[in-house]
TrEMBL record, chain A:
Keywords: Cell cycle, Cell division, Centromere, Chromosome, DNA damage, DNA repair, DNA-binding, Kinetochore, Mitosis, Nucleus. One of its GO terms (cellular component) is kinetochore. Its main location: nucleus. This is Centromere protein S. Transmembrane segments: none annotated. It holds the Pfam family CENP-S.
Amino acid sequence: MTLERLKAAVHYTAGCLCQEVAEDKEIEFSKQTIAAISDITFSQCEIFAKDLEMFARHAKRSTINTEDVKLLARRSQSLLKYITQKSEELASSNQKQKEKKKKKNEGESKGRSSEAQVQPMMADSEELDT
Amino acid sequence: LSQMKKEPALPSRLVKQIFAHYAKMSVAKDSFKIVEKCLDVYFKQLSNDLEAFAGHAKRKIVDATDLELLMRRQGLVTNKMPLHVLIERHLPLEYRKLLIPVAMSGNKVIPKK
C-alpha cells in the first residue's frame, strides 16, 4: 500500500513539474506522457537507492551522505557541477543555522548537544522500501 | 631521435582470439581496429572509475572491493550473479585458485583471507 501512495506522490509532483515546463516552453503534456515520466522517475529512484546504499557501504558507512550522491552523479559533468553547487549551498546554510543555534545556546547558558545534521536530500531516498 | 612510445595495450592477437570466441562468427579484419579502440576507451573509463571508488573509501590503493563495486554498477554482478560465479565461468583454473578461497587439508584456507 505504501508503494502505491509513493507512486501517487511521485506522479503528482511530476505533474506539477511538467506544468511548470509547459508554461515555460508553451507546449502541452498529454496525461500518458506525465504518467510515463513519473513511472520512469520511480524506477530510476529504485536504481539510485540501491547504488547509494552500495556506495555508502563501500565507504564502510551505514548512512548515505553527500559524497555518495556526488559519486552517483559523477558520470555526467553538468549534473555533477549542479549537485556540487547545491551541496555547497546546503553546507553553508547548515553552518549558518549552527552558528545561530550556538548563539542561542550561549544565551541560554545551558548548552545542549548539537543535533545531528539532517540532510533533506537524503531524507526521501532512505524511506524507499523495495 | 624521436622514439614514439607506444601506448600500453592488450596484444592484438589476444583481443582477436577473445572477440572471435565470443562472437561465434567470422569477423572482418578492419573491425578489430575498432574493437581495440573501444578497449582503449574502456580501460580509460575503468581506471577513472576505480580511482573514484578507491578515493571514496579514503584509500589510495585500488582493491578487490572497488572492482566488485564497478562490476555491480556495470550490471555484471547482481544478486543473482555473484562475483565468484563469474570468476568460475570466465577465468582459467590457475587464476581461480588465486581468487576464490578453498579449504585444504590441515585446516588451511588458500589463499588466506
